[in-house]
Amino acid sequence: MxxxxxxxxxxxxxIEKIFFDRYVxxxxxxxxxxxxxxxxxxxxxxxxxxxLGDVIYALRFRVPMPAKVLATQPEGREWIIELVxxxxxRFRLATSNRILPNPNxxxxxxxxxxxxxIAVYALxxxxxxxxxxxxxxxxxxxxxxxTFSLQNHLRTSVKDMGQIxxxxxxxxxxxxxxxxVIPVQAKGGSDQISSVQTTQDIxxxxxxxxxxxxxxxxxxxxxxxxxxxxxxxxxxxxxxVVEERHYKLVPAGELDPREIVAYxx
Length: 265
Fold this sequence. Notes:
The protein is α/β, with parallel strands linked by helices.
């Protein structure tokens, strides 16, 4: 096997090997541990990636399952990978659902307060998106709360799940003094909103801040200056949208006074 195989192809080979070594027809759950990656790589004859965790992360959040794995899915169901402990995982058949920005939703134009230097030096889409959400106080606008960014890229752990990463964590309060914890997942234009990540974020918030109300948010780029925000919830094993809004960041001079008046209605 060529050791220069593209990372995605290499990841697919490893995941296929682990999956089909354990799969039996009719199975709805398949458990494995991270060490299975080493065994699979040795049997296939490919060089392991330096970051073993990235193999699992990519299949959980960035890319679809390999076609051969997808072919085993019953109609209306899909394989997801969940944490079930430290370095322990499971493939599980969950109800299939995809949440994408609604192309028919009205766009709300707001003045862009993002420092221009951020656009110059942002390292990737995710960092740029989180920065634009933060500098333009989009979480406050969307939820109608006063919120504060507590930490981004929070690496932590959840009981019975293992290690997780929250893209950005906000805390906030409303006019009645109710306190909120708001985990935010950031997605580039081609990335998919993840029920797995939302479930993990909610579980951690309940574990760490049991007295606060948790309101999970997903932020997704529609374009470089247009952002979709979703408030999410999990019912059973399905991800649901509580509310969705689209915001377009524009220079203040481009705001139409008639448009601002129209927003009152």
